[in-house]
Write a structure and sequence with these properties.
This protein has 86 residues and is mainly α. It is built from four helices and no strands. The protein has a single domain, classed as Orthogonal Bundle (Cytochrome Bc1 Complex, Chain D, domain 2). 72% of the residues lie in helices and 0% in strands. The longest helix is centred in the middle third of the chain and has 18 residues. The protein is globular. 12% of the residues are buried. InterPro entries: DUF3243, Uncharacterised_YmfJ, YmfJ/YflH_sf. It comes from Aquibacillus halophilus. This is DUF3243 family protein.
C-alpha cells in the first residue's frame, strides 16, 4: 500500500519528512517552498487516491499562486505534529 492510499499515512509520511528537514537545519521558508513545489507536482501528475486528496487537488487548482503558497504553508502546519517519531 502506498502512503498516498490513506490520508493518515500520507500525513505521517509528510510529518516524518518535515521533521527530517528541520533536523537538518532547513529553514521554514525553504520547507514551505518545497511543499509548494510538491503541491503543484501532485496536482498535475498524481491521481487523488482518497477524498481528502481530491478536495486538496480541487482547492489547489482553483487557487491563485499566492493562495497555493498559503495551502502549502497550511499543509506544513497540518503535519507539524504528525509522523512516526512524534
Amino acid at each position: 500500500m502506498s502512503v498516498l492510499d490513506n490520508f493518515e499515512s500520507w500525513k505521517d509520511f509528510l510529518g516524518d519528512r518535515l521533521h527530517q528537514a528541520q533536523g537538518q537545519g532547513m529553514s521554514q521558508q525553504a520547507i514551505t517552498e518545497i511543499a509548494y513545489d510538491i503541491g503543484g507536482y501532485l496536482s498535475n501528475q498524481v491521481e487523488a487516491k482518497n477524498e481528502q486528496e481530491a478536495v486538496l487537488r480541487e482547492l489547489w487548482n482553483v487557487a491563485s499562486k499566492e493562495e497555493q503558497h498559503t495551502i502549502a504553508n497550511m499543509m506544513v502546519k497540518l503535519v507539524q505534529d504528525e509522523g512516526t517519531g512524534k
